[in-house]
Amino acid sequence: MWSVSNPSPNGPASHPDLQATRIVVLGGGPGGYEAALVARRLGADVTVVEQEGLGGAAVLTDVVPSKTLIAAAEWMSSTERAPALGIRLGGTPGSDAPAASVDLAAVNQRVLALAAAQSADIRARLEREGVRVVLGAGRLDGPRRVVVPAGPGAGEREQTFDADAVLVAVGATPRELPTAVPDGERILTWKQLYNLQTLPEKLVVVGSGVTGAEFAGAYRALGAEVTLVSSRDRVLPGEDADAAELLENVFTARGMEVLSRSRAEAAERTADGVRVTLADGRVVEGSHVLVAVGAVPATAGIGLEEAGVALTPSGHVVVDKVSRTSARGVYAAGDCTGVLPLASVAAMQGRIAVHHVLGDAVHPLNLQTVAANIFTAPEIATVGKSEAALRASGSKYVTATLPLARNPRAKMLGMRDGFVKLFAHPEAHVVLGGVIVSPRASELIFPVTLAVAHRLTVDDVAEAFTVYPSLSGSIAEVARMLHQPLD
Ligand SMILES: Cc1cc2nc3c(=O)[nH]c(=O)nc-3n(C[C@H](O)[C@H](O)[C@H](O)COP(=O)(O)OP(=O)(O)OC[C@H]3O[C@@H](n4cnc5c(N)ncnc54)[C@H](O)[C@@H]3O)c2cc1C
Predict the structure, then answer these.
(1) I want to staple 282 with a disulfide (CB 3.0 to 4.6 A). Which of 50, 278, 288, 468 is the partner?
(2) What is the pLDDT of residues 48-67, one digit of tens each?
(3) Which parts of the sequence belong to the Pyridine nucleotide-disulphide oxidoreductase dimerisation domain (predicted)?
């Protein structure tokens, strides 16, 4: 058994004592490994316990694989613009042969290799920095002890790690419907998609949140027939309504079938495919079904409640803005907290936790400046206050929108679908938030993030030079539309 006594159990250590501060991190995803690196840099003794692979679901099954797959889909989508640019792709003029086709086995091989390599890099980096990496499924034994039972990969004997602080960053797993149990072949979670060797003839995607929309768009671009089953009025409920409407129109124009207000109740295998039954009795047939109906926190059975850690009814760990749980010495970060399921937020929560544990300067989590992106084609990037939040809180705001089709660079590039929208305070003129719908919106949103984070006014943004011609020129142009002349 590996065990250490606990020299400083009473909260934050002052700087000279940091060597003595032992932090055990449960879960090696972005919530865990980023925190581990920061804690090591600050001199703490750090152990990361991880049951699958370093980098977590973010690297192995979620962010990295999906965005790598989407890179292939994006290449296919960009070929749509070829005729407008005067480029003829594929076979002979007038032939119906597809411009390009996808070797899904090769795409998925690249996806999995890239994810595995990134996971290995993260493990190597942690070890190089002096973080103790322990493979195995850990659980809390009280608030300041983590136990890793013996098991495959975890060693022959149970290991015990005493800690001054434990950071719980165990993430979440796909929510499964009892009436649509994944079989890994035809009824799939997003983690199982990368085993496909050939493109599904017809993929039924259940769930039109971010994950469902990203995969539906990607598989359509790769050449599959796709039906997107959405229980809500439109795709991407909760996102900017104009962006969601635009995306749904683009999906439909690309030949995707979008079934709104259609709750899927069950999915079962047929002789050569799947049958999805909707709540109103309709049946959707396909070759495969992807069930993307959210995630559940991986917090069950790991000793949290016994250690005094309060959970919500959904099983998420309750945390404050410096990642403290209800149990002294136990912190939590990432998807298991349900605060905002993004890798960037998980990493920030984890870093905040270790700064707090180690008595370093702490900036409480501020979600007002989180930039997020939906990797569809076009992408949808957002930052700051949404229009729905501004309306719901009764805040005063002004807004302006410029369609991408009016941007000179977009015209040259043959891009049509998208817009730039900003929200600003009508008196202080401060930029409150923004939405960019465009190819590579994830890259374009940064100036708006800077404006929101640093409380810049629309005039500050409007007066900065942009390259001519450039897509970012639209951001300055929208800021100019919001300029208020002096009285
Ligand atoms: C398809 C998909 C695409 C996404 N794309 C993006 C994106 O583009 N950008 C973005 O910011 N976010 C994206 N997300 C969200 C992002 O994946 C999560 O927010 C992020 O992974 C959360 O990090 P985490 O550290 O909390 O959890 P995870 O990354 O899930 O890591 C948790 C780790 O804990 C381990 N673990 C669990 N229980 C134990 C235990 N008892 N003992 C030891 N180890 C344990 C797990 O094995 C796992 O490795 C996406 C999510 C999905 C589903």
Answers:
(1) 278
(2) 999 999 999 999 999 999 99
(3) 371-477
- In this prediction, residue 80 has a pLDDT band, given cuts at 50, 70 and 90, of confident
User: Tell me, what CATH number does 364's domain have?
Assistant: 3.50.50.60
Span 401-418, pLDDT tens digits: 999 999 999 999 999 999
Q: Which domain holds residue 244?
A: 187-293
Ligand 1 near 207 CB (within 6 A): no
Q: Is 98 within a domain?
A: no
Q: Could you write out the DSSP letters of every residue in 172-230?
A: EEE--BTTB---SSSEE-TTTGGG--S--SEEEEE--SHHHHHHHHHHHHHT-EEEEE-
Stretch (H or E) spanning 38: helix 30-41
Confirm whether 4 is domain-assigned: no
- Is the residue at 88 inside a domain? no
361 and 258, same domain (yes or no): no
| 436 phi-psi bin (left φ>0, alpha ψ -120 to 50, beta other) | beta
Q: Answer whether 302 contacts ligand 1 (Cβ < 6 A).
A: yes
365-394 confidence digits (pLDDT tens): 999 999 999 999 999 999 999 999 999 999
430: left (phi over 0), alpha (psi -120 to 50) or beta: beta
Give residue 287's identity as a one-letter amino acid code.
Answer: S
Nearest CA to ligand 1 atom 19: 342
What one-letter code names the amino acid at 16? P
- 440 & 416 share domain: yes
Q: Which of 184, 176, 178, 181 is nearest to 207 (CA)?
A: 176
Which run of H or of E encompasses 351?
Answer: helix 343-357
